[in-house]
């Protein structure tokens, strides 16, 4: 009698596990940290999907793409969240991603959006952040920054999307003159970190005067910590725009669930979590609007951005220039 | 049935002498086969860019400076230790061995606490109105390497001093020679013999540096070849670049290894009666010696004291994932130890029978992993496994295997003399009793080698426990070992939890070494 019961139990157990499918989303480290959007997103989505949402932090954005390429078709990821327009062309080329099939989303982005594969979830401007009590006078452009003796931390453009963004920013602002700017900046750079979290942590610990982050970063200190001492600088050249995107993995076995997640991602629930956890502008402004405090943030004079199609070629050339300038 | 049992027994019996050959074949495959795997998988031939040259130049520069500083600083320290008698001298010499089994990432944690921009050193500088120091970049990398290799150099030089027969000192004294003459006649010739080998060995160790450059490098101008391999693999997924750099690394550390091997041949200083060295020049340089010893104690001790102090404070604020990582690390370390000891024993038993050219070749294979990049090994294994299974599932077994391979040169080096002595002493008797294969291993070799096996097991366990190399390639937060977890915590600037994890890691590494080493000595009946 015992044996059939065990067998029945096993069958039940396997049925139970089959009933709660698992959706694995690769994302960057700060997204899954306990103060990031991860916990709230997971709770909200699991409440509606009857599934197990697993957010896996795999380094920073650019390293994530390398990771997916490395794993290829065998990747466990169903959705990859956290690439940006500088990487979407390279990501498309891998053939590992599928179209999202959503063309009726009313985005509130500073740019037109028509990518059939990558769906935006937030955006922001890259900017250098400083502490107004420790460094009250800050340079307003790259040339002044290079001439100053301020210590800055930046991220590696090969592993991190802000690091890559800075590379594109300098290139967009200075073109062929970019290597000269980088040579001037070389002695200001304390170190180049693997990801955004490391760099921002170093800045907060006092290991540098300025850190490459976003114009929205001071909102975190203002809203979450009631600390108004952090500020971002809008540069004379304009600031480079980042649109953060996600896409469904082509080989996923949870295709419907992945679609459901992407739809959820541009919904009001997800979008209203973003401003005060990921500290970026939501891709679709929620009904309640932006949280108070966001109106105090620096507004760049102009938004710089390479079209996704050009970004790949620009990246490779700019990366060589960057490596050369900084390795002298 | 009986027939079959006999034949299996026969096969097994035949296996023992050949185990060493099998192990060395495996090593060659691990070291060179993996490079080949990376090469074959690469889609196009990579261009050697300028930043790659910079990585090569940086690797050589930092290794040269690290070796030079370690050796130069080691001379006065070793001399002070050689000619002074003081309470705690033996403890101090024993503790000089500790950095060898100290996890790199823990040392970096300690060095940051002392030399970071907000560290003790900068605070002291601030009292005098001086700006804080910056640890990232070339000087930080060299500092960390000196921290690890100065003690090694001191121990090597101490052996040199110990090799000068007591009679020589007496002779110089009786001829009316002072400290200057001791230096000219005895110490300098000895140093000229010992220094090149020591320098070359430290240079070699520093050329394969990964974790130090990962944590303290300052961007493209402070990148070692090993780090560049990691970046090519993890950041760009550029296998052709990784393969190219792997060959560069092989050539670089290969030539350093050959130099180290060439220079480190032992010279005979002449025989004495092995009496206790009586020094007649103790009145001289007392203050300077004290200052040098104080310097070393401070340089090595302060970072460790900081780890313990900050770690004790952060021990309770560690997330549960740290304990899970510690458990994984422990499992990996134990598996790696089993492999390393089995491999080392097999190799030593095999090599002890060989003579001439085959033996030289065999020894070269045993020491091959000194010159090979664990990251290339990892990348190669990743590519080899990929078609059959998810490399993620294999991350920990591969880490254990690579760690064992990396510990093998030290294991073999420590086991070889003991195996040879055992064979020389008891071999003929064992032969006359027809004690062979398993029986010989069980009743003769293992009991006789208990102490060295305990020692090398401790070494292998501690090295694996603290390793932050190949596991970083496969990194996955859910499978992180303790050193990787610690590195992640440092990256996220959760310094309290990182300090706690650092203390735990240090305790586990030293604890494992102590337990194994002790186990080898306990109730040793022979």
TrEMBL record, chain A:
<dbReference type="InterPro" id="IPR005967">
    <property type="entry name" value="ThiB"/>
</dbReference>
<dbReference type="GO" id="GO:0030288">
    <property type="term" value="C:outer membrane-bounded periplasmic space"/>
</dbReference>
<keyword id="KW-0813">Transport</keyword>
<dbReference type="Pfam" id="PF01547">
    <property type="entry name" value="SBP_bac_1"/>
</dbReference>
<feature type="signal peptide">
    <location>
        <begin position="1"/>
        <end position="18"/>
    </location>
</feature>
<keyword id="KW-0732">Signal</keyword>
<dbReference type="GO" id="GO:0030976">
    <property type="term" value="F:thiamine pyrophosphate binding"/>
</dbReference>
<comment type="similarity">
    <text>Belongs to the bacterial solute-binding protein 1 family.</text>
</comment>
<dbReference type="GO" id="GO:0030975">
    <property type="term" value="F:thiamine binding"/>
</dbReference>
<dbReference type="GO" id="GO:0015888">
    <property type="term" value="P:thiamine transport"/>
</dbReference>
<protein>
    <recommendedName>
        <fullName>Thiamine-binding periplasmic protein</fullName>
    </recommendedName>
</protein>
<keyword id="KW-0574">Periplasm</keyword>
<dbReference type="InterPro" id="IPR005948">
    <property type="entry name" value="ThiB-like"/>
</dbReference>
<dbReference type="InterPro" id="IPR006059">
    <property type="entry name" value="SBP"/>
</dbReference>
TrEMBL record, chain B:
<protein>
    <submittedName>
        <fullName>Thiamine/thiamine pyrophosphate ABC transporter permease ThiP</fullName>
    </submittedName>
</protein>
<feature type="domain" description="ABC transmembrane type-1">
    <location>
        <begin position="326"/>
        <end position="516"/>
    </location>
</feature>
<feature type="transmembrane region" description="Helical">
    <location>
        <begin position="194"/>
        <end position="216"/>
    </location>
</feature>
<feature type="transmembrane region" description="Helical">
    <location>
        <begin position="12"/>
        <end position="40"/>
    </location>
</feature>
<keyword id="KW-0812">Transmembrane</keyword>
<dbReference type="GO" id="GO:0055085">
    <property type="term" value="P:transmembrane transport"/>
</dbReference>
<dbReference type="InterPro" id="IPR000515">
    <property type="entry name" value="MetI-like"/>
</dbReference>
<keyword id="KW-0813">Transport</keyword>
<dbReference type="GO" id="GO:0005886">
    <property type="term" value="C:plasma membrane"/>
</dbReference>
<feature type="domain" description="ABC transmembrane type-1">
    <location>
        <begin position="56"/>
        <end position="260"/>
    </location>
</feature>
<keyword id="KW-1133">Transmembrane helix</keyword>
<feature type="transmembrane region" description="Helical">
    <location>
        <begin position="394"/>
        <end position="411"/>
    </location>
</feature>
<feature type="transmembrane region" description="Helical">
    <location>
        <begin position="495"/>
        <end position="516"/>
    </location>
</feature>
<feature type="transmembrane region" description="Helical">
    <location>
        <begin position="135"/>
        <end position="158"/>
    </location>
</feature>
<feature type="transmembrane region" description="Helical">
    <location>
        <begin position="60"/>
        <end position="81"/>
    </location>
</feature>
<feature type="transmembrane region" description="Helical">
    <location>
        <begin position="290"/>
        <end position="309"/>
    </location>
</feature>
<dbReference type="InterPro" id="IPR035906">
    <property type="entry name" value="MetI-like_sf"/>
</dbReference>
<dbReference type="Pfam" id="PF00528">
    <property type="entry name" value="BPD_transp_1"/>
</dbReference>
<feature type="transmembrane region" description="Helical">
    <location>
        <begin position="93"/>
        <end position="115"/>
    </location>
</feature>
<comment type="similarity">
    <text>Belongs to the binding-protein-dependent transport system permease family.</text>
</comment>
<keyword id="KW-0472">Membrane</keyword>
<feature type="transmembrane region" description="Helical">
    <location>
        <begin position="242"/>
        <end position="261"/>
    </location>
</feature>
């Amino acid at each position: 009698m015992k044996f059939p019961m065990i067998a029945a139990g096993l069958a039940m157990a396997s049925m139970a596990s089959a009933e709660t499918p698992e959706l694995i989303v690769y994302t960057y480290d700060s997204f899954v940290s306990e103060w990031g959007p991860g916990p709230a997103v997971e709770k909200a989505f699991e409440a509606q999907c009857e599934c197990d949402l697993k957010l896996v932090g795999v380094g920073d954005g650019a390293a994530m793409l390398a990771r997916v390429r490395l794993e290829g078709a065998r990747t466990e990821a169903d959705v990859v969240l956290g690439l940006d327009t500088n990487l979407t062309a390279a990501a498309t080329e891998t053939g590992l991603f599928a179209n999202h099939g959503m063309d009726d989303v009313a985005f509130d982005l500073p740019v037109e959006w028509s990518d059939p594969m990558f769906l935006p979830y937030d955006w922001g401007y890259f900017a250098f952040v400083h502490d107004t009590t420790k460094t009250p006078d800050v340079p307003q452009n790259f040339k002044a920054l290079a001439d100053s003796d301020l210590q800055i931390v930046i991220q590696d453009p090969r592993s991190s999307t802000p690091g890559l963004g800075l590379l594109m920013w300098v290139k967009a602002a200075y073109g062929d003159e970019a290597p000269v700017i980088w040579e001037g900046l070389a002695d200001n750079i304390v170190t180049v970190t693997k990801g955004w979290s490391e760099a921002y942590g170093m800045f907060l610990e006092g290991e540098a005067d300025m850190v490459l982050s976003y114009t929205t970063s001071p909102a975190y200190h203002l809203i979450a910590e009631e600390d108004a001492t952090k500020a971002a600088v809008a540069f004379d050249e304009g600031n480079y725009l980042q649109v953060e995107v996600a896409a469904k993995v082509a080989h996923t076995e949870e295709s419907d669930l992945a679609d459901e997640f992407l739809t959820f991602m541009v919904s009001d629930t997800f979008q209203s979590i973003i401003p005060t956890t990921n500290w970026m502008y939501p891709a679709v402004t929620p009904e309640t609007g932006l949280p108070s405090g966001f109106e105090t943030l620096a507004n760049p004079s102009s938004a710089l951005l390479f079209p996704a199609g050009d970004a790949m070629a620009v990246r490779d050339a700019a990366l060589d220039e960057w490596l050369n300038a900084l390795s002298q | 049935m009986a027939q079959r049992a006999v034949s299996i027994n026969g096969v097994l019996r035949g296996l023992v002498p050949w185990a060493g050959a099998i192990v060395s074949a495996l090593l060659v495959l691990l070291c060179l086969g993996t490079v080949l795997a990376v090469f074959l998988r690469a889609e196009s031939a990579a261009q050697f860019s300028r930043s790659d040259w910079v990585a090569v130049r940086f690797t050589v520069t930092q290794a040269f400076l690290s070796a030079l500083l370690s050796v130069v600083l080691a001379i006065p320290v070793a001399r002070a230790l050689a000619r002074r008698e003081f309470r705690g001298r033996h403890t101090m010499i024993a503790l000089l061995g500790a950095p060898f089994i100290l996890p790199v990432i823990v040392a970096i944690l300690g060095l940051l606490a002392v030399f970071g921009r907000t560290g003790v050193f900068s605070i002291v500088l601030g009292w005098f109105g001086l700006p804080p120091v910056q640890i990232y970049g070339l000087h930080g990398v060299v500092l960390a390497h000196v921290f690890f290799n100065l003690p090694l150099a001191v121990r090597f030089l101490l052996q040199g001093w110990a090799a000068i027969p007591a009679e020589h000192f007496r002779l110089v004294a009786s001829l009316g020679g002072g400290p200057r003459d001791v230096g000219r006649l005895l110490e300098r010739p000895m140093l000229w013999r010992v220094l090149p080998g020591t320098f070359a060995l430290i240079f070699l160790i520093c050329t394969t540096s990964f974790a130090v450059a990962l944590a303290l490098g300052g961007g493209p101008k402070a990148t070692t070849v090993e780090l560049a391999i990691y970046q090519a693999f993890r950041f760009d997924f550029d296998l052709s670049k990784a393969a190219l750099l792997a060959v560069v690394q092989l050539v670089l550390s290969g030539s350093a290894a050959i130099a180290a091997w060439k220079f480190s041949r032992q010279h005979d200083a002449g025989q004495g009666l092995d009496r206790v060295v009586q020094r007649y020049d103790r009145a001289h340089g007392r203050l300077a010696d004290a200052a040098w010893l104080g310097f070393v104690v401070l340089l090595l001790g302060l970072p460790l004291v900081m780890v313990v102090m900050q770690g004790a404070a952060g021990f309770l604020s560690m997330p549960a994932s740290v304990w899970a990582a510690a458990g994984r690390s422990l499992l990996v370390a134990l598996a790696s130890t089993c492999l390393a000891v089995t491999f080392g024993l097999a190799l030593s038993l095999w090599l002890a029978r060989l003579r001439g050219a085959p033996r030289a070749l065999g020894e070269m294979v045993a020491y091959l992993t000194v010159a090979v990049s664990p990251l290339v090994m990892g990348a190669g294994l990743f590519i080899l496994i990929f078609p059959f299974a998810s490399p993620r599932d294999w991350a920990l077994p591969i880490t254990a295997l690579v760690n064992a391979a990396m510990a093998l040169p030290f294991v073999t080096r420590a086991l070889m003399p003991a195996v040879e002595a055992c064979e020389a002493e008891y071999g003929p008797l064992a032969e006359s009793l027809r004690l062979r294969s398993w029986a010989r291993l069980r009743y003769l070799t293992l009991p006789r080698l208990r102490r060295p096996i305990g020692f090398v097991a401790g070494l292998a366990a501690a090295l694996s426990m603290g390793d932050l190399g190949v596991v970083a390639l496969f990194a996955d937060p859910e499978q992180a070992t303790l050193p990787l977890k610690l590195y992640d915590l440092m990256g996220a600037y959760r310094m309290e939890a990182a300090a706690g994890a650092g203390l735990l890691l240090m305790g586990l590494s030293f604890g494992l070494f102590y337990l194994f080493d002790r186990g080898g000595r306990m109730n040793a009946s022979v």
